[in-house]
Design brief:
By secondary structure, this protein is of the alpha+beta class. It has 2 domains: 10-132, SMI1/KNR4-like; 135-216, Ribosomal Protein L30, Chain: A (2-Layer Sandwich), CATH 3.30.1390. 30% of the residues lie in helices and 24% in strands. The chain has helices at 20-27, 33-41, 56-65, 68-71, 117-121, 151-161, 168-174, 188-202; strands at 10-13, 42-46, 52-54, 75-80, 85-90, 97-102, 111-116, 140-144, 180-186, 205-208, 214-216. The strands form 2 sheets. A 7-stranded antiparallel sheet has the order 1-2-3-4-5-6-7. Strands 9-8-10-11 form a 4-stranded antiparallel sheet. Helix 6 packs antiparallel against helix 8 (188-202). The protein is elongated and about 60 Å long.
């Protein structure tokens, strides 16, 4: 397969034979021939911008990890931007248009780059602030949905990494009555990766934008007795 990558960091060749039937069967969709050829040839392609496009076997693992079939059944995760944004193709669309969404907010509406995957890959692929909905860039609210296992370390971590002014005792008291609003009006582009990292460890933070749409949620939601609605 010949592709004219203008910038790549690392290319890993596929180590096993993958046929089209295996791909179609696993993802329950029909793919254009070019992505099948890509998966037959590449195991992974990483770009200087941080964008990584997965090979077929890695794509299978990541779709399971992020429960894409449950939260976004019309899409398939094929890569990420290295900063928490997943890169997707739409099932049964007949094209290879690129879609993206935060990997912690897969039940929200997806955004389109309005470009074919391979045209994008051949022109220094990136997802920057100019590609994001303005409602996601600032004014977000961060909620604690459930009480984390390591309460003390959680309190220290969120105060430090989200630059909160509230006291340790204030957060500890609020943890007795979850969910609660932890922070508001902070820029998502600045804190997105931090919140995702906190969720990997404590699995209890949810982010909503000005439209009250969920942008980031715990990797696997814990069952909690929530109040009706958020403040």
């Amino acid at each position: 397969m010949r592709l004219n990558f203008k910038s790549t960091f690392q290319i890993t060749r596929a180590e096993r034979i993958i046929d089209a039937n295996e791909i179609h069967t696993y993802f329950q969709t029909n793919f254009p021939a070019k992505i099948i050829e890509f998966w037959q040839y590449f195991e992974e392609v990483a770009f200087e911008s941080g964008v990584i496009i997965y090979g077929f076997d890695v794509a299978k693992e990541r779709n399971v990890l992020y429960e894409v079939s449950a939260y976004a059944p019309d899409y398939i995760l094929i890569g990420d931007d290295g900063g928490g944004q997943g890169i997707f193709l739409k099932k049964n669309s007949g094209d290879l248009d690129v879609y993206y969404q935060d990997l912690g907010a897969l039940s929200s509406s997806f955004y389109s780059l309005d470009i074919d995957l391979f045209s994008w890959l051949e022109n220094n692929p990136t997802i920057g602030e100019e590609d994001c909905d303005p409602d996601e860039l600032d004014g977000i609210k961060v909620y604690v949905l459930s009480r984390p296992n390591s309460t003390n370390t959680f309190i220290v971590a969120v105060r430090k990494y989200l630059h909160l002014n509230c006291s340790i005792n204030d957060i500890r008291e609020k943890l007795e009555d979850v969910p609660f609003l932890l922070a508001k009006d902070i820029p998502l582009m600045r804190y997105r990766e931090t919140i995702n990292e906190l969720n990997q460890k404590y699995n209890c933070l949810e982010v909503r934008n000005a439209k009250n749409e969920v942008l980031i949620r715990p990797v696997k939601r814990r069952r909690v007795n929530c109040k009706s609605g958020y403040v």
